[in-house]
Please model this.
Amino acid sequence: MRKTELRTLLTGRGLVESPRWHGDRLYFSDWSAGEVIALDLDGDDEVVAHVESLPLCTAWLPDDRLLIVSSRDGRLLRREPDGSLVTHAELGPPGWNDIVADGRGNAYVNRGGFNPMAGEPFRPGFVFLATADGSVRQVADDIAFPNGMAVTADNSTLIVADSYRHSLVAFDIGADGGLSRRRVWADLGEGTPDGICLDAGNAVWYADVPNRRCVRVAEGGTVLDTVTLDRGAFACALGGTDGTTLFIVAAEWRGMTEPEMVTPGSGQVLATQVGVPQAGWP
Model:
C-alpha cells in the first residue's frame, strides 16, 4: 500500500460534509454552522451561503449554479449568480440528505425513511428525482440508509451508498431520468460508506466514519487503495488542477443521538494526491 501524505487545508470546523470541486475551489458544508464554504488550495475560505439545515448537502448544475438541500423546510434551493437563493423544487416533508446533479441537469436527492437523531424506529429510505422544470418524483426505494451518490461520466449509472447495508447500489438511468436494473455494485464487507466520488478508472472512493478511512473500490468490492485517518471521514471528492487531489472532510464522531454529533472544532478539510483523476459527478 502506498504511503499516504495528507495535507490539512482547514481545521476548527464542525460537522463537515458534501465536498464538491468546482472551478478552482473546493466547496463544502459545515452542518454545525449552517454554512456552505468555498476553499482554495492555499487554505483561504469564504462563506458563500447560509442555510439553517441539517443535513446540508450541495450539487452543481451544468450551468454553474449551486443547488442546496434545505432539509428542514423540504426545499431544494438554487444559488443564483448574484448570490441570492431561490426555490428550485419543493421536495416535501423534512428528512432529505444527499444530492448529486448529472450532466443533463437532473438532480437526485435521497432521504431516510426515519429520523435516527430523534430515535425513530428503522424504515428504509428513498431516492427522488428533481428535474429542471421543478417536478419531483420518487425513482427508487428500499435503501436502508441512503448516503452519498455519484453519476458516471456518460450519465448512464447512478451509484448510491447504502450505509446500513454496507454496500454501493447501482441503477441504470433512463432517458427521462428514471432508474432501473437495480444491483449491488460493491459489497463492502465491514465498510460503512458515507460520501462517495468516482474516478476515471471506474472505481469509487467512499468515506467511512466508524472505520476512520477513505477507501477506493472496484465494481464488485475489491479494495484498490485506502487512506487512513485519525477521525471519521464523512465524504470525499476528487478535484484540483488535474483532478487527482482527493479532498476529505473529517471530524471526531460522537454519535447520531448526541447533542453535538461531532466534537466541536474537530472538523477538518484534508487533501492527498492519488493516481487516477476525477470522472462523472460530483
User: Anything to note?
Assistant: The first strand starts at residue 7 and ends at 13. The chain has one domain: 7-273.
